[in-house]
Amino acid sequence: MSGYKLYYFNARGRAEICRLAFAAAKIEYEDIRLNREEWAKVKESGKPPFGMMPFIETPGGHIIGGSFAITKYICKKAGFFPVNSDEDEAIADMIVDAVEGVTSAMVKWFFEENPAKKEELCKTFFETTLPTNMERFQNILKKRNEGNNFFLGDKLTYADIIFFNLCNVFAQGEPKVPEQLKNFSSLVDHYNRVLSVPDINAWIEKRPKTER
C-alpha cells in the first residue's frame, strides 16, 4: 500500500472522481467506506478539515478535503495536469467549475422534498440546464483538434476525468454512453475516449455496485 487513505460513504457520490483519478494514476490507496454511525465518530474527531467527506490522508500525514482538490492533487502527481500554459490550467479549472454548477443544480432537484417543486426543478434541469451546459462543454472541446482529443489536447487531465464522471452519473455508473449525450457527438466521443483508458475502464468494471 502507498499509504493513501480515502474516506467516504459506500457510494460513488462526490468521491468517485477521486477513485477514478487514483485508478488512472495507478496509485494504490485504502478505499474506506463509512456508514453513518462511523462517519459521525470520524467527524467528531475533527479529522476532516471542514467536517465533510470525501477527504484523504497522504503518506506524509497530510489531510486534504474536497473532491476537486483531491482529484487535482492526485492528477498532478501522476502527470494528468495541463503543462503547456497557465491559460490551459485556467481552462481546466473553468471546466471543473462548470461541472460543479451542473452538479449543484442536479443535487438541488434530487433532494427537493416538495413534490411540485421537485417536478419543476427536474424539468428545468433536464430541459434547459443540462442541454445548455452540454452544448457549452462541446464548444470548448471542439476548440482543440475539432473535438478529436481531450479538452486540452491529446493528454488526459483532471478536467476530463471530472467531466466524464458527471456524464457517467446519468448512466447510473454503468460503462455505457448516457442518453443525455445523444445530441452531442463530440461529447460521446470524449466519453468513450476517457472510458477507454485501461485503468479507468478496469476500475469501473470492478468497483462496488452502489445506488449512487
Automatic annotation (TrEMBL):
<dbReference type="Pfam" id="PF02798">
    <property type="entry name" value="GST_N"/>
</dbReference>
<dbReference type="InterPro" id="IPR040079">
    <property type="entry name" value="Glutathione_S-Trfase"/>
</dbReference>
<protein>
    <submittedName>
        <fullName>S-crystallin 4</fullName>
    </submittedName>
</protein>
<dbReference type="InterPro" id="IPR004046">
    <property type="entry name" value="GST_C"/>
</dbReference>
<dbReference type="InterPro" id="IPR050213">
    <property type="entry name" value="GST_superfamily"/>
</dbReference>
<dbReference type="InterPro" id="IPR010987">
    <property type="entry name" value="Glutathione-S-Trfase_C-like"/>
</dbReference>
<dbReference type="GO" id="GO:0006749">
    <property type="term" value="P:glutathione metabolic process"/>
</dbReference>
<dbReference type="Pfam" id="PF14497">
    <property type="entry name" value="GST_C_3"/>
</dbReference>
<dbReference type="GO" id="GO:0004364">
    <property type="term" value="F:glutathione transferase activity"/>
</dbReference>
<feature type="domain" description="GST C-terminal">
    <location>
        <begin position="85"/>
        <end position="212"/>
    </location>
</feature>
<dbReference type="InterPro" id="IPR036249">
    <property type="entry name" value="Thioredoxin-like_sf"/>
</dbReference>
<dbReference type="InterPro" id="IPR036282">
    <property type="entry name" value="Glutathione-S-Trfase_C_sf"/>
</dbReference>
<dbReference type="InterPro" id="IPR004045">
    <property type="entry name" value="Glutathione_S-Trfase_N"/>
</dbReference>
<feature type="domain" description="GST N-terminal">
    <location>
        <begin position="2"/>
        <end position="82"/>
    </location>
</feature>
